Amino acid sequence: MTMRRVVVTGLGIVSPLGVGHEIVWSNMLASKSGAQRVTDFQVDDIPCQIACRIPLGDTSEGKYNPDDWMDVKEQRKVDPFIVFAMAASTQALRDAGYEAKTLEQQERTGVLIGSGIGGIGGIYDASITLAEKGPRRISPFFIPGRLINLASGYVSIEHGLKGPNHSVVTACSTGAHAIGDAARLIMLGDADVMVAGGTESPVNRLSLAGFSACRALSTSFNDTPEKASRPYDKDRDGFVMGEGAGIVVLEEYEHAKARGAKIYGEVIGYGLSGDAHHITAPAEDGNGGFRSMSAAIKRAGISTAEIDYINAHGTSTPLGDEIELGAVTRLLGDHAANVVMSSTKSATGHLLGAAGAIEAIFSLLAMRDNVAPPTLNLDNPSVETVINLAPHKPVQKEINVALSNSFGFGGTNASLVFRKV
Amino acid sequence: MSDIEDRVRKIVVEHLNVEADKVTEKASFMDDLGADSLDQVELVMAFEEEFGVEIPDDAAESIQTFGDAVAFLTKATA
């Protein structure tokens, strides 16, 4: 069967670099970092005491005010990851200039938003309530406000979207899988428009303790948080957790054209693979990532020589960065020297289930503006490479095709390929 | 206005995000103040917490309006 074409027509983002894709993008191109010391809960007994945090303040200044995005009464019932998703979804639909007004439009518009760990903060709090006060003190909103698919649920209720209502949970690949799977729903004709992406609110004492126990987080930069996320650099020692949401409006190409929508790019490739190797460590030969990238490129029907920019998974962990770089080098062959690859996690931190979604947004904006965002703190690469890793500053370059990688715990890999329309 | 009324009204205003002057004696939580069945459960929990009483399920079902709540809690704390 013929696959329908899918394009991106709206962007929404809540992130440590701000709220709204233009302010976030300009902060990123100005090489700003969202990292800071954690001061709102106890961290002195945890090895990692930093995180990338959403700046709170006026929406008009590109900061985050949850009251502008969700009814105060509803906010109280849910974990922040749902509020982030509401904020980013409303932005994306506004940016797309799309509202599902008729019943037919509503039934042809769906939602697919995922999260890596969902309402872990609320689960932590409720378990304390249960232990201290007993089961009668557990709120009836405890379950519905913590379930991962309730981000999709709340967004569908807010905007009257009655098409496919779905969710994804694949750790740090969630955002990329959500966008890829949603695009396929449109390609196959199950919907004409999808609101898709990822959201995460992991910055709390329990998550920091848990990821610290996995030895996944940076621990040597507690006094200089903005230096901690340093993908490919020889002094990197783990990732920095981030919070926020990235949401895109995906639309069938003719549908977008017919209403004169602005188009950021087309989703031409999506590839998935599994490492079948280890619960947290990537396979050392990079085979999983290599196969997800290869599958995406094959699906896109392009050659590797057409890739201009790669938004790396690049989390700043000692193992993962070099393994991904090796897989990309093998994939690109002689073309490697022509490609810019950067890790925007150096600025935003690692938004876990939202990472793949905000990085898809950065890939689309890189195409729009023909500029590759920088990899901050890359002072001394730990390995030699012919690939331009865009250290410190953005790189001006014509970008027609961009690839974005996301790899998650459990050995789950996703790659997306976008092209200018 | 009694102290109990003030405390109940404060909880209702906070939980249902409504104006205090809408919370009249006859105001029904579900019909007039926008509560759904889960909001209603949570309201009763908040009353229990605030007044240090236990409200059994069958009693909770009979608390439909602000007046019902004040009457029940006045009796329960007497």
UniProtKB/TrEMBL annotation, chain B:
Keywords: Cytoplasm, Fatty acid biosynthesis, Fatty acid metabolism, Lipid biosynthesis, Lipid metabolism, Phosphopantetheine, Phosphoprotein. One of its GO terms (molecular function) is acyl carrier activity. GO terms for cellular component: cytosol; membrane. Transmembrane segments: none annotated. Its main location: cytoplasm. PROSITE patterns: CARRIER (PS50075), PHOSPHOPANTETHEINE (PS00012). This is Acyl carrier protein.
